[in-house]
Amino acid sequence: MTSDPIICTDQTRCFDAAGMQISCPGTGQDGELRPGAGWPEPRFSEENGVVVDRLTGLFWRKDAGEDAFPMSWAEAAERVAALNESREAGRSDWRLPDRIELFSLVSHARTNPALPAGHPFSGVFPGYYWSATSCAAADSQAWYIHFGGGRVYKGMKYASYMVWPVAGLRYRPYRRSGNGPRFHSEGDTATDRATGRMWARQPGMGKGAVSWTEALAMVEVLNRNRWGGFTDWRLPGVRELESLVDLSQHSPALEKGHPFGATPQGCWTATTSVYESSYAWVVYFREGAVGVGFKPKADFGLWPVRGVKAESIAHRA
Fold first, then answer.
1. pLDDT, averaged across the chain
2. Do both 160 and 194 map to the same domain?
3. Is this structure's pTM higher than 0.85?
4. What's the Cα-to-Cα distance from 33 to each of 9, 29, 148, 296, rounded to whole Å?
5. Same domain, 95 and 200
């Protein structure tokens, strides 16, 4: 387990808007800054027929395709109940992983499957796997993750997708100590007490939709102008931006009583999609989906962040 509740991605390369690989220094991209907690080495180990993720403390079934046929959400729950009844691998605490738990496995450097290099899993289907998390906007839908490329979407519970059971203590990375609201506001910024990140209170910065390149350039302008009194603003990594999502809410999918202004339909991240590197990851704040956007198109907003990883090399003006 880690001190920073947001885990870094495994992306170490940087790309331009056309998808060509470029040198990372000075880009402000995820591959350069890698914000978040680092991974233990090795990250995964095998115990009693299951895979232990030493980063999250979760226990996963090694064979992600042992239940070879897709099933509905209700059938998935029945399958997990059967595993507990039979004490699969000597355990009786198997469950369908929630969205945060399932998303923790996703690699942002590899595809087909989108799992970290050297992982010990077998039978991984490069398609959709159910999570246990219902969609707040429609209880008839639940979230699933595509392990071909890593997208996070939702579908009708009667649809058929794959099942990957998990066991162990529930992974709850964004808990905060003490009482009071999650976000502490001060002027034009708000600090997330659950992750230590500081965010602009106005998503989009009043600029509307911009391209990915424009979003990166806007961050440079914020730092030159010492916006908010700081010079270390950056485009957030995909896991940082996704950490703001509250899956119990929708329109927007942010914690009730949050201090932020109106959110764009989606906001850019500094993380390139290696499935197609002319695209970058985007978080959609109506319901909380995680998808991609074509970098050259002005389709999404900028939501700048600062703190934690960049703190040691930054200074207040």
1. 94
2. no
3. yes
4. 10, 6, 25, 22
5. no
Number of domains within the chain = 2
Residue range 84-113: mean pLDDT, rounded: 97
Residue 313 has pLDDT above 50, yes or no: no
Is the omega angle on the peptide bond into residue 252 within 30 degrees of 0, that is, cis?
yes
Digit-coded pLDDT (tens) for 233-252 = 999 999 999 999 999 999 99
Q: Is residue 5 part of a domain?
A: no
Q: Amino acid letter at 217?
A: A
Radius of gyration of the chain, Cα coordinates, nearest whole angstrom: 19
Residue 288: inside a domain, yes or no?
Answer: yes
pLDDT at 178 over 90: no
In a domain, 35, yes or no: yes
Kindly state whether residues 87 and 199 are assigned to the same domain.
Answer: no
Tell which of 134, 167, 200 closes a domain.
167
Distances in Å between the alpha carbon of 201 and those of 3, 93, 254, 309? 25, 41, 13, 20
In contact, 174 and 241? CB cutoff 8 Å: no
Measured from the Cβ of residue 62, the count of other Cβ atoms closer than 10 Å reads: 17
Tokens in use for 132? 């246990």
| Judgement on whether residues 68 and 141 belong to the same structural domain of the protein | yes
